[in-house]
């Protein structure tokens, strides 16, 4: 299946070609910027070291994207998603988690409006 052509990184002045929005170097910078300036401090507090341990344990037990699996595709999971967001009373309990590939996680997050909200 043909892939769409690479495009320039969205970071101002960067000419690196990438398949995503940012090149590898600037994706890390953008994630750090988002964490520092855009993410709610109360939310940031909920995603500490203990969350990283829970996430690593969950993804090791569920290595495939659960959304793709439902569609009959086998895709490695890269992210762990809270079914009921922490901001709406969800917890880190295993029953509230699902492993997803990045495209599925982005689609669900955008659809729910959890990260890409308008101000």
What does this protein look like?
With 119 residues, the protein is mainly alpha-helical. The protein folds into two domains: 8-38, no CATH class; 48-119, no CATH class. It is built from five helices and four strands; from the N terminus they run E-E-H-H-H-H-E-E-H. The protein has a two-stranded antiparallel ribbon with strand order 1-2. The longest helix has 15 residues, at 24-38. The mean pLDDT is 85.
Outline the secondary-structure elements.
Layout: E1 7-8, E2 17-18, H1 24-38, H2 41-46, H3 49-61, H4 66-70, E3 79-82, E4 97-100, H5 102-112
Quick structural gist:
This protein is mainly alpha-helical.
Q: How are the strands ordered across the major sheet?
A: 1-2
**Assembly of the depicted chains:** single chain
Helical content (DSSP H or I, runs of 4+): 40-55%
Largest sheet, if any?
2 strands, antiparallel
- Segments where pLDDT lies below 50 for 5+ residues? none
- Tell how many strands the DSSP assignment holds: 4
| Class from secondary-structure proportions | mainly alpha
Beta percentage is 5-15%
Helical region count? Answer: 5
Shape: globular
Arithmetic mean of pLDDT: 85
User: Could you tell me how far the N terminus lies from the C terminus, measured between alpha carbons in angstroms?
Assistant: 38 Å
